[in-house]
């Protein structure tokens, strides 16, 4: 195992001018300046598990970070594995002072919301991972963030969010002391493997969602557009979590010879790289499929709207035809009604009242007007 480096007695200073993002557990600045450190809930426990290992076996389980530092100093060939969940600023600076962590990496671990990346600061490796898990009830993908510091004799995990569950990774490694005895690098590869394996249920859940969406699209469900949009946004986040991992893992593999990586660990990392490449390709395929489904859905919606407009137009045309017929017959019946109404008035001095041919003439006039109107409306296809 590499020789343990000298450790600085005091933590590095923070860079000025960096503002921490607001969110749950943070307090807005009172004077408009830099935000204070995140407020930690009273019952929140930052140190989830801390252990010191020697030859792959747990030799100590310190309750505090100070005890971990002391136990590690007493084990010349030991390795510390410290698991933290949303640690405080003072805890991270304590770790930074003990293990010579770079101030930029410490700031990233405090702020979270980082993209997946791999950076090397001297003999310390800093890795940022985005874990994911599929929630069955709401049919959503939940993302978590994990920061890992890897040194010659220590591994520190800083978790933000619910995923991933690293307790199972630690148990699996403790059940295989020969692998854990290879050092912090072996634990890092086990964490990478757990994060990538956690993508498989997400891929399966998303595939099921896409199959359901395709059914809803052709069934004409009006709420499917929103579901497509929300799933597309989740796939964008999923793509941001998986795509950088491909380059990160290839970067680690490129350093096998330079850093003398064990052959067994090389096989582990190649297997992880194959899995993440497959997952990244599946996610790319999901995004393309959702884009095509959205296009098809828009086409079907447009066709449905056109059909509805056509049906409305046909209904309006038929209504107009009926109105024409009713209006034509109303006009035809209005003519004799008008004549009959005029001559039905009880006036003594009306023309043709004493004329013997007045009645036949009125009947003939009404018939001529009705026939004329009928012929006119018929020629115009109103009847």
Characterize the structure shown.
The protein is α+β, with helices and mostly antiparallel strands. It is built from eleven helices and seven strands. It has helices at residues 65-73, 89-99, 103-111, 167-174, 177-180, 184-197, 199-219, 224-254, 256-259, 263-343, 358-379, and strands at 47-54, 57-60, 79-85, 117-121, 124-135, 140-150, 154-160. Strands 2-1-3-7-6-5-4 form a seven-stranded mixed sheet, sandwiched between helices. The longest helix has 81 residues, at 263-343. The model is unreliable at 1-43 (pLDDT under 50).
In short:
The chain is of the alpha+beta class.
* Gyration radius over CA: 41 Å
- Calculate the mean pLDDT score and round it: 80
Count helical runs: 11
H/E element sequence: EEHEHHEEEEHHHHHHHH
Q: What helical percentage do the residues reach?
A: 55-70%
Question: Top keywords for this entry?
Answer:
single chain, 383 residues, alpha+beta, 7-stranded mixed sheet, 11 helices
Mind sketching the topology for me?
Layout (H helix, E strand, L loop, with lengths): L46 E8 L2 E4 L4 H9 L5 E7 L3 H11 L3 H9 L5 E5 L2 E12 L4 E11 L3 E7 L6 H8 L2 H4 L3 H14 L1 H21 L4 H31 L1 H4 L3 H81 L14 H22 L4
Parallel strand pairs: 3-7
Antiparallel strand pairs: 1-2, 1-3, 4-5, 5-6, 6-7
């Amino acid at each position: 195992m590499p020789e343990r480096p000298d450790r600085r007695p005091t933590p590095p200073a923070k860079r000025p001018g960096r503002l921490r993002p607001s969110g749950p557990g943070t307090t807005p600045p009172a004077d408009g300046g830099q935000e204070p450190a995140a407020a930690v809930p009273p019952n929140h426990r930052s140190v989830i598990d801390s252990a010191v290992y020697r030859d792959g076996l747990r030799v100590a389980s310190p309750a505090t970070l100070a005890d971990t530092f002391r136990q590690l100093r007493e084990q010349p060939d030991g390795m510390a594995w410290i698991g933290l969940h949303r640690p405080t600023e003072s805890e991270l600076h304590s770790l930074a002072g003990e293990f010579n962590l770079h101030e930029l990496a410490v700031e990233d671990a405090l702020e979270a919301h980082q993209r997946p990346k791999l950076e090397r600061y001297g003999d310390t490796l800093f890795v940022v991972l985005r874990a994911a898990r599929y929630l069955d009830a709401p049919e959503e993908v939940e993302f978590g963030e994990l920061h890992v510091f890897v040194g010659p004799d220590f591994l520190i995990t800083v978790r933000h969010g619910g995923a991933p569950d690293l307790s199972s990774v630690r148990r699996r490694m403790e059940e295989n002391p020969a692998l854990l005895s290879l050092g912090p690098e072996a634990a890092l590869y086990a964490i990478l493997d757990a994060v990538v394996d956690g993508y498989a249920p997400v891929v399966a859940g998303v595939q099921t969602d896409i199959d359901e969406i395709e059914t809803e699209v052709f069934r004409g469900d009006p709420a499917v557009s929103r579901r497509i949009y929300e799933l597309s946004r989740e796939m964008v986040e999923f793509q941001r979590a998986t795509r950088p991992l491909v380059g990160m893992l290839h970067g680690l593999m490129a350093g096998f010879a330079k850093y003398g990586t064990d052959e067994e660990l090389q096989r582990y990392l190649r297997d992880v790289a194959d899995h993440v490449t497959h997952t990244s390709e599946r996610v790319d395929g999901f995004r393309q499929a959702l884009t095509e489904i959205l296009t098809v859905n828009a086409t079907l919606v447009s066709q449905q709207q056109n059909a509805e407009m056509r049906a409305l137009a046909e209904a309006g045309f038929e209504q107009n035809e009926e109105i024409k017929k009713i209006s034509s017959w109303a006009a035809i019946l209005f003519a004799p009604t008008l004549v009959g109404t005029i001559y039905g008035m009880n006036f003594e001095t009306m023309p043709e009242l004493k004329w013997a041919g007045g009645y036949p003439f009125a009947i003939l006039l009404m018939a001529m007007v009705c026939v004329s109107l009928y012929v006119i409306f018929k020629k115009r296809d109103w009847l």
